[in-house]
Specification:
By secondary structure, this protein is of the alpha+beta class.
């Protein structure tokens, strides 16, 4: 039984091969598209559409062999793109505008590919475009994707320098891979020893931040992180590991509420009073880049060691940096899970933590007033327990996708009174509003809670999906105390230290099929990503000096590093010069390596080859010299010409080796037929007529 697609496949196989120029151009367009793909979500929509349409248009022109668009049209598209770039970004300078213009220029340049010079311009634009992807991320997957792009660009560079024949893409890709592999040791040498000097090796821009925690909170804002699997940081404990429900990683403390958004309160006050109780917990942390100028340390961590960035303990208990964390950071810290934070007696500043904007969430305020009437003499602990009991018994549910759409002006009312379903931010924000309505100082704290269920090589991984919001209330005599309303409705979310599955059909299916498979894959990737960060992204000047000390340098410094690098580069240059000299003395291409064997075969037939003679000219001389005895040799020489110069020629090394074997057999057959003597001297009849002994004798 023949399937419909099998006939179509046979038709495609039987179709004539594309012209070389069309094949090469289509391959190049694919490489450009692959290189631009990581930028697709960053480019303005009009730019992505224009670039895609231009590449598809250029491919169609090549397939249909139509002329390129006129110059006025290309210049018009360029002017339109520049104007739209200025309109979208407000400038033509900077990273975002520069990447937009570069993508636009790359696409438009394909519309004027005429000569090798144009192709080289596009190639080097492509190499620069590869580098721009690392301005936004430096992940292993992106590095692999850009390595494939560089390989494709190098392949096109090889094809551009082989204008003759029809070299296969596979052969050109092999040459490009070989060149890249030969240059790899030099690249590794430069990576290891080139001094990390600013600003070239300064902190990367904040856009490299990969964690999604924000410095403010609006209802519905944190739920988008529930499915974000990116790593925020890794932790390794020195001693017993605390239970997952005790892992609260303190982030921004949000005290100001305008009815829509919770924000941190600017403060220049000194660190709050602090009392530490019980044993401490020592741990090491590897932080990923973050857009926030703070360290999400274990709550509460007053001691931080080996911190190479300026930071201070803020007035609300968090470690504040002078600028956002732009690169990976490793530090050691000490935490005390049992602590008392802040003043234990009422102060005027606490009145700011009971303020609520007027005109918002009236029904929630009425509910709090009714609770206060029922418990007029209750203290803060009793009020906290009453509100938590209402959450447990009032029909509330925890969900990653709360209904109701975008929050309105009375978002807390909609959650607390009507829907009663929400994410952790809904429970924390509503709880704080209720407590403030009860005249209890309260505030929202965001950060991370828990970690992956299993460690990898002793490291516990905290991801963006572990983002969490909880509350803090002030209790007289005890200071600020953590209260997590989410634990009242979804205790497993806190006990397991991870989010509950909600509508993730793939995860649920994997969990039912193999409970450990997803975790194993995630763990393997986590280990690889950690190794990538430690070995590459976090490789710094201190690692270079440590390497020099291992090599025997007593007091290495930057001049020592430069002298060592210069000496090794000089040795590498000398070795490269010797290798180049040897290469110049021997043929570089299969066609050139074939010449000595061709000349030896012709010598056995009593012929010599002039440097300018083509295979067809040699075939004519063989026919004149040997007649029918040299027909096979003549056919082989004509086949050699076809391999080298005919349309659709594939003069690769394998085809030439096959031709060489056929040529040697033809020469041997001609010699056996009496074309020459074993010593290579012509046969007696060879001095006569060119056609051999049977040829007619021509008259003068």
């Amino acid at each position: 039984m023949a399937f419909p697609w099998s006939a179509r496949l046979q038709e495609l196989r039987a179709a004539p091969a594309l012209p070389r120029s069309t094949r090469d151009l289509l391959f190049f367009l694919v490489v450009i598209g692959w290189t631009l793909l990581p930028h697709a979500w960053r480019l303005p929509p009009w730019c992505g559409a224009l670039v895609a349409a231009t590449l598809l248009w250029r491919g169609q022109l090549a397939l249909k062999r139509q002329p390129l668009p006129p110059r006025w049209l290309r210049w018009s598209l360029l002017a339109l793109g520049v104007a739209l770039t200025a309109w979208s970004h407000g400038t033509l300078l900077g990273r975002e505008a520069g990447v937009t213009l570069l993508a636009l220029l790359m696409a438009l340049k394909t519309l004027e590919l005429h000569a090798r010079r144009d192709a080289l311009v596009v190639f080097f634009l492509g190499f620069f475009l590869v580098l721009t992807n690392f301005l936004y991320a430096q992940t292993p997957l992106l590095a692999l994707a850009m390595a494939l792009s560089a390989w494709g660009l190098l392949t096109m560079l090889v094809l551009a320098h082989r204008p003759l024949g029809y070299p296969p893409l596979r052969e050109a890709a092999g040459v490009a891979a070989g060149a890249a592999l030969r240059g790899l040791p030099l690249a590794l040498l430069l990576f290891v020893l080139f001094p990390r000097l600013g600003p070239l090796w300064g902190p990367p821009p904040p856009a490299l931040a990969r964690t999604g925690l924000s410095g403010s909170l609006s209802l519905g804002g944190m739920s988008v992180l529930a499915h974000d699997d990116r790593i925020a940081f890794r932790v390794r404990f020195d001693g017993p590991v605390p239970p997952l429900e005790a892992l609260y990683w303190r982030g921004p403390v949000l005290s100001d509420f305008d009815g829509h958004t919770w924000r941190p309160r600017p403060s220049l006050e000194p660190p709050p009073p602090l009392q530490l109780n019980g044993p401490g917990v020592a741990y090491e942390m590897q932080l990923q880049p973050s857009p926030l100028p703070l360290l999400p340390l274990l709550d509460f961590s007053p001691l931080v060691d080996t911190l190479q960035l300026p930071a201070q303990l803020g007035a609300q208990g968090g470690w504040v940096l002078q600028r956002p964390l732009a690169g990976e950071l490793t530090l050691q810290a000490h935490a005390w899970p049992e602590y008392e934070l802040g003043p234990t007696q009422a102060t005027p500043a606490l009145r700011e933590d009971v303020a609520l904007p007027a005109g918002f969430n009236p029904r929630t305020l009425q509910w709090a007033t009714a609770l206060h009437r029922r418990l007029p003499q209750a203290g803060t602990p009793a009020l906290v327990e009453a509100v938590l009991a209402h959450i447990r018994q009032g029909g509330f549910s925890y969900t990653l996708a709360p209904a109701g759409g975008a929050p309105g002006p009375h978002a807390v009312d909609a959650f607390w009174i009507d829907r009663r379903e929400g994410f952790c931010e809904h429970f924390a924000a509503a709880f704080v509003v209720v407590m403030r309505a009860l005249d209890v100082p309260a505030r929202v704290v965001t950060g991370y809670q828990g970690a992956d269920a299993f460690p990898q090589d002793g490291w516990w991984t905290v991801r963006s999906l572990h983002a969490h919001a909880w509350a803090e209330v002030w209790i007289e005599g005890r200071g600020w105390r953590r209260v997590d309303p989410t634990a009242a409705v979804a205790p497993d979310r806190i006990r397991l230290g991870t989010r509950a599955e909600d509508g993730d059909l793939l995860s649920q299916a994997l969990q039912r099929w193999s409970p450990t498979l997803l975790q194993q894959w995630r763990g393997a990737w986590t280990r690889f990503d950690a190794t990538w960060n430690r070995a590459l992204l976090q490789y710094a000047r201190a690692d270079q000096l440590r390497l020099l000390r291992r090599l025997g340098f007593e007091a290495p410094d930057t001049p020592t590093l430069l002298r060592l690098l210069a000496g090794l580069l000089a040795l590498a240059g000398a070795a490269g010069a010797l290798a180049a000299a040897r290469t110049l003395r021997r043929p570089r291409e299969p066609w050139q390596r074939l010449q000595p064997r061709l000349e030896r075969g012709l010598a056995r037939l009593g012929l010599s080859r002039a440097p300018h003679e083509t295979p067809r000219a040699l075939a004519r001389r063989v026919r004149e010299r040997l007649g029918e005895a040299g027909a096979a040799v003549e056919a082989q020489l004509l086949a050699l010409e076809a391999l080298r110069y005919a349309p659709g020629a594939t003069a690769d090394a394998r085809a030439l080796r096959r031709w060489q074997r056929g040529f040697e057999r033809a020469v041997a057959a001609a010699v056996a037929a009496g074309g020459t003597s074993c010593a290579g001297t012509p046969a007696p009849w060879a001095a006569g007529s060119p056609g051999g002994p049977e040829a007619p004798v021509r008259s003068p």
